[in-house]
Design brief:
There is one protein chain. The chain has a single domain (4-126), classed as 2-Layer Sandwich (Nucleotidyltransferase, domain 5). It is 41% helix and 24% strand. It has helices at residues 38-52, 71-87, 99-102, 110-126; strands spanning 4-10, 15-21, 28-33, 56-61, 91-95. Strand 4, helix 2 and strand 5 form a beta-alpha-beta unit. It starts with a strand and ends with a helix.
Length: 130
């Protein structure tokens, strides 16, 4: 039975969201959350979780090229813990160190959803069970 997976590219201003399933294992950009407050961001996430009923969520985990953590690493871990704690959905962290290098440089919000799709595709390629 195919399971839906949602992925998040967490940022302080925007959160990119992508979707895929375990049968096709193909990620695609879904939306970008631009709410001003944390509560509003989590309300938007709650709507997506209710609509798509994912089996798990994937969160991109940034770090320095050598793997050491920085401020956004800590924030992304916290975000993943909040997703799991608030909604009870299993959450997986995926190394996103090189995901932005694959996206053509562009402006605008769509890049956040595309980054989430790259993170989710990496999850399907490297982490998900066949």
């Amino acid at each position: 039975m195919p399971k839906t997976v949602l992925a998040f590219d967490f940022g302080l201003k925007r959160i990119g969201v992508a979707i895929g399933n375990t049968l096709v294992r193909q990620a695609q950009p879904l939306t970008v959350i631009t709410a001003a407050t944390n509560d509003a961001k989590f309300e938007a996430i709650a709507v997506l979780l209710k609509e798509w009923q994912p089996a798990c969520c994937v969160v991109g985990l940034p770090s320095h090229p050598d793997g050491t953590e920085h401020e956004m690493t800590v924030r992304c871990r916290r975000f993943a813990n909040q997703l799991n704690g608030r909604f009870g959905v299993p959450t997986v962290l995926v190394d996103e160190r090189y995901s932005s290098a694959v996206i053509p440089q562009q402006r605008g919000e769509t890049i956040d959803a595309e980054a989430a799709a790259i993170i989710l595709q990496q999850y399907f390629n490297d982490y998900a069970e066949s």
